Amino acid sequence: MTTATNLSELTGDYVIDAAHSRIGFVARHAMVTKVRGAFNEFDGKISIDGDNPAATSAQVVLKVASIDTRQAQRDEHLRNNDFLAADQYPEIKFVSTAAEQIDETTFRLTGDLTIKDVTRGLSIDFTFEGVAKDPFGNTRVGFEGSTTINRKDFGVTWNAALETGGVLVGEKVVLEFEISAIKS
């Protein structure tokens, strides 16, 4: 993998390779630890304009039913109406509305995140990890980024009080993106 110094080389349309990407989250649990999880099913596309990074765009769709925290009972709880209501709202969507280059390897995507039919604007800083030609002749790009949201802003409000004070689930959730995308 190499980092590109000439961004115009990256110009093109890309499809996120879900088999080599991870979209996950981290939330505080019982005030003492963190629970990590991911969405195992998602798709997305990125249109990169290396000559005009502001014209870059992206969209991602996560399948709520694919949530995986490595604990089946917790996953079912996250899918039900207390949290994400997967039957009623089967997808979480992000659609970019703006893009900017912060420095040589950092890019900021601003856009709309929709969870449970609530849409809020947010920004995600991504680090460009490089570009490579894989053994099958595909051009791949890699980006990693994260952002923090308050789950209550999206109508995800369930919680339980702890005997020792505090609550079972923290309000802040870190969304993590490790993206490998293939040029179309």
UniProtKB/TrEMBL annotation:
Pfam families reported in the protein's UniProt record: YceI
Domain Lipid/polyisoprenoid-binding YceI-like intervals: 13-182
Domain of life: Bacteria
Membership in a protein family: Belongs to the UPF0312 family.
Protein name: Polyisoprenoid-binding protein
